[in-house]
Every structure is written in C-alpha cells, then in structure tokens.
Write a structure and sequence with these properties.
The complex is a heterodimer of chains A (about 375) and B (about 210). Chain A is an alpha/beta fold and about 375 residues long. Chain A has nine helices and 13 strands. Classes of the chains: A alpha/beta (about 375), B alpha/beta (about 210).
Chain lengths: ~375, ~210
C-alpha cells in the first residue's frame, strides 16, 4: 500500500493508538510506586557498621562481612571499608543507627557512593534456640542529602517453624544468622534490580489490629495524597532497653513500602532534634511538630509510647508487645490519629501452636502493620 | 402397666436427686465462669445531672497521680486513657505534650483536686471544655495464697473548665486473682489488658 492514501493514514493512526495504549498500560503499575524509584545501574553501596541495640556483645564485624559477601555475590558494588571509615572519622560520626545529610553528601562527594546500608541489630541470642532480629535501611546518598529508599525488618527464632517431628528446628545460631542474612541480601538485591518496593502481600491480621484507634476525619488519607512523614523515637516505658528506638525503626520499615509515603531518614530527624535541642517533655507539642515541619518539610509527625516489649524467657512464655501511637498533622496543628495496640505471640493461636509468634520483634511488626492499615482506612 | 406407689416414689426421688445434682453442677459452672471473668470492684459514679457530657468537644487529660510502687504507672494509664477516650470519636483529646506545657507554664501541681481557678486557666490555655484528672491506686501483681494476677484500681474526675466544678467522677477496678487462677494457675491477664478493661468501663460509664 502506498503511503498517503486514505487507507495508509488509517493504518498509521491505528498503529499509533495501539502503541500509545501499550505505553500507558506498561506505565500504570509504576503510578503507585514509592518515590524512591531511581535507576541503580551504578549503585555503589557503603555498608555502615552494625548499630548494636541488643545491650550485649555481638559479632559485628562478622555480620558486616557476611552482608558484604552476600551483596557482592548478587552483583552490588560496595564501597571499600577503609574509605567509609575515613568519612566517618572525618565527620566524627559515632552513632550508626542512621545517616545524616552531611555524611550522605560526604560519601557521594568523596567516593561517589550513592547509597548506604544502615543495619540495627535489635536481638541476638546465640543460645538454644537462637534468635536474631534487625532492621535495615537503604539510604540514598547524594548532593541532596540522605533519603530512605528501602527498608526491611526481620526477626527469626530457631523454634519458630519446627515443622513435622521438629525437622526444621534450628539449633545452630550460625545457621539462623546465615538464613537471616540471605533473606536480607535477597530482598535488597530484588529491590535494586526492580527499583521499586514490592507491595505488601497481605494486610494486617485481625488478631493484631489496634485495640483502640481513631483517625480524624480531617486527617490526610494515607495512600491518597503524597505524604512526608517523620517518625520520632517512641518514649520507652518498658523494661527492654531502647525499645522506643526499636519500635520506631520497625515502624519506618512498615511505612516505607506504602504508596505515596516518604519517610524521613532517622539520621536527619536525629540531627534536627539535637540541633534544635527538642525534648519531648510529656509528649510532642504543636509548636514542636510545626518546627519539624519547617526544618524537615514533613506533613505528619509520628510518635508514641512503648509499654511492653518482652521476648519469651522460656518455651512456655510468649512475647508481649504493647504501645500507643500519636500522629500529629503538622500543617493543621492537630492530632491526626491515635492508636493503642497490645498483643502476645499466642493471640489467636488455637491448634498445635499454628500461627504462634516467638519473638517480640516479629510481633511488633504485625502490630505495626495493623496500625499502618488503620491509617489508610 | 400399674406401678406400685413405692416404686413411683423411688423414681420420683431419683429424679429429684438428679435435678438437685444438675442444679448444683450448674451453679458450680456458673460460679467458675464468673470466676474466670475479670473481677470488678464496686462501681461508684457521680454525674452532675445538669451537665450534658455529649456536648463536650475538647478534653485535656492531666498527668494521673500515682499511688503505686510502679513509678511509670500514672503515665501509662493516662496515655492509654487518652488514646481510648479519643478512640471513641466523641471528643478531641489535647496531645499530652500541650497539656504538660500548659501545666508547667501555669505551675499547677500534680493533684486530682486542682483548684477551680487552675482548671479554668488550663482550660483556656489548651482550649479545652473539660479537664480530666486521675489517680492510680493499684497497678501490678496482687497475690492471694499461692496465686498471683495483675490488677488495677483507678479513678478519674472530669472538671468543667467554665466553672472549675467536678461534673463527673468514677472509679473502677479490674483484674485480680480469680477462681480459675486459683484452680488452674495462669497469672491472670497481661497488665495492659487489665488496664484497658478498667478504662473501657470508666469511659462507657462517662457516656452512659
């Protein structure tokens, strides 16, 4: 058919329409993706030293080496430890539970490292059964500072899935640590390959939903509009050391995957809290929330109080976690939502320990997922 | 068939004995079920008949007075109470940080009986219609024989910020050693659930 004839013009129009529809269809899944998506062809990752929140000695160097080995094997380029040490030493950085904008800029400017992996080890028991729990965040580094790209929270116990005749009972801490590090490396490599965080496969379980919750009708709807959120360390009223920080890191890992939600890197939140000498005496005030809004450009400030955060001491005991959350809408100067959650690892367990949770960290993840789901309703 | 009177009497006696046994068993089960549920103390409530609590829009909850050996009991109970009160959706609860700021600025001491002028001042500082005070009298494990269980005793008062007068007052207890704890052990409910039970009872009575 010769070009220019009426039929040829029709064919071209039809072909153009098909291509346009195909492009729109392919682009649709990306609409709900978090804003972290960025090409990772030239990822150069700095693995920060482990932030030890266990209150006891841990094999920190072995853990970092294990993570580095696994990430290298999955094709992720790593920054040399000596180069990272120099940046940390020059910036007099001692706290490694997060990364400030200045450190992120230094990593980028001096070594072209465009991301850092922040790992906080919250539980490490090498007895029998062994237990491990940690959170990890991939923080983008560049001229614009630090921003959370991806986060995960893991908690594993040797006795959690014993299987038939206890064939899957893990008694060796090395085996459990290897399983945990493999999972971390797999999840991170999957994110780096895809550039987006996969949506949560399931919602919160009914047994772990908040016992009391209220979301203000005027509060911004999570998932319906882009929101920038700062999570402050929770106030700790539990006997567990640093339970407030543990819960806030785990909450960040829960929120990072939500569509439209950008979570401020805790290192930046900490820098602002220290620089402004902001102390939450008796809780957060409207003025403090407004100050954080001005300095961190956030819409919502999230904080709370932890009452219970205990791991089982014996096989007969169950982990127990209890906390309240408060979300303050910094733009409107009002409480956007409150919730009260409490649970034990045996809640809702009826037959043969099916569904039982053996670590406080995993229980906290389930309860926090319930809180996050409640915000979206 | 004609039965002898003595046989009928025996049968009747047998039936009566079975009925009595069933009654006793039922009573024992009812008692056990009662023992399994949370114990509740005497409910004492005062409500000002001239005040309609459904018209209250904003509430400020002051730090609770803690009369227990647990240093953090007052803050814990107050935090859960504030959250549960707001979760009713009936009122807006001023964030605790705002209340603390106002209390510090006005130099109001921690008390469950603030002076009327203090109530009015706090109310105008945080723009609240009602100020709530509370006292935690018992919080933690109680023992009865060889059994232990968690228990709480808490009371709250609502003050109108306009007049500084008490408009509602109530107390509640929850938890404690039950019959099932004595028979089967178990140690009772976790402290937070016992707290929730007592506070839910108080909030239900406020809006009754």
């Amino acid at each position: 058919m010769r070009p220019g004839t009426p039929k040829g013009w029709l064919w071209r129009c039809a072909a153009g329409a098909i291509v346009a529809i195909a492009q729109v269809t392919l682009a649709l899944p990306a609409l709900g993706a978090p804003p972290a998506a960025r090409p990772f062809e030239a990822l150069r990752l700095a693995i920060l030293p482990i932030d030890n929140m266990t209150g006891r000695a841990i094999p920190a160097d072995d853990l970092v080496a294990g993570i580095a080995e696994r990430l290298s094997a999955r094709g992720i380029a790593l920054l040399e430890p000596e180069a990272l040490d120099a940046v940390l030493a020059d910036g007099r950085v001692r706290w490694v539970g997060g990364i400030s904008g200045d450190t992120a800029r230094a990593l980028w400017a001096r070594h072209r490292a465009n991301a850092a992996l922040v790992t906080s080890l919250e539980m490490f028991e090498d007895g029998s059964p062994p237990r491990i729990g940690f959170t990890a965040r991939l923080v983008g580094a560049g001229e614009d500072g630090a921003r959370v790209l991806w986060a995960t929270s893991l908690a594993m116990a040797g006795e959690e899935r014993p299987g038939l005749l206890e064939l899957r009972y893990v008694d060796d801490p090395v085996v459990l640590v290897n399983q945990a590090l493999d999972r971390l490396a797999d999840e991170l490599a999957a994110f780096v390959a895809a550039g987006t965080i996969p949506r949560a496969e399931r919602g919160s379980q009914r047994r772990f939903r908040p016992r009391a919750v209220h979301v203000s009708p005027e509060a911004p709807r999570w998932g319906e509009e882009p929101l920038r959120v700062a999570v402050l360390p929770f106030s700790n009223d539990s006997p567990r050391r640093q339970a407030g920080e543990v819960l806030s890191y785990r909450l960040i890992a829960t929120l990072v995957g939500l569509p439209g939600v950008t979570v401020v890197e805790p290192g930046e939140v900490r820098r602002v809290l220290l620089e402004t000498r902001l102390i939450q005496e008796g809780g957060l005030t409207y003025a403090q929330a407004e100050l954080l809004r001005g300095l961190l450009d956030v819409d919502l400030v999230l904080t709370g109080t932890v009452f219970d955060y205990s791991d089982p001491g014996t096989a007969d005991e169950a982990p127990m976690v209890g906390f309240t959350t408060t979300v303050i809408d910094a733009r409107r100067r009002q409480v956007a939502s409150v919730s009260f959650s409490h649970g034990t690892g045996r809640d809702g367990v009826r037959f043969f320990d099916l569904g039982e949770i053996r670590t406080a960290d995993r229980l906290a993840d389930e309860l926090l997922r319930g809180v996050a789901d409640a915000q979206r309703r | 068939m004609i039965r002898r009177r003595s046989e009928g009497r025996k049968e009747h006696r047998g039936r009566s004995a079975r009925a009595v046994a069933l009654l006793l068993l039922g009573a024992a089960l009812a008692g056990l079920a009662g023992g399994c549920s949370t114990t509740r103390g005497l409910e004492s409530t005062y409500a000002d008949p001239e005040v309609d609590l459904s018209l209250v829009q904003t509430v400020a909850v002051l730090p609770f007075v803690n009369l227990t050996s647990d240093d953090r009991a007052g803050e814990r109970v107050r935090d859960v109470f504030s959250t549960m009160l707001q979760a009713t959706g009936a009122v807006y609860v001023v964030p605790p940080g705002e209340v603390t700021k106002a209390v510090n600025r006005l130099r109001v001491g921690k008390s469950d009986e603030p002076a009327p002028e203090d109530v009015t001042a706090i109310g105008s500082a945080v723009k609240a219609d009602v100020v709530v005070t509370g006292v935690v009298r018992e919080y933690g494990q109680v023992r009865s024989g060889n059994s232990t269980a968690n228990a709480i005793a808490v009371s709250v008062k609502l003050f109108a910020t306009e007049s500084g007068k008490v408009i509602w007052s109530g107390a509640s207890t929850a938890g404690g050693v039950t019959a099932s704890d004595r028979f089967f052990g178990g140690g009772g409910e976790p402290m937070e659930l016992v707290t929730e039970d007592a506070l839910r009872d108080l909030i239900d009575r406020i809006y009754k």
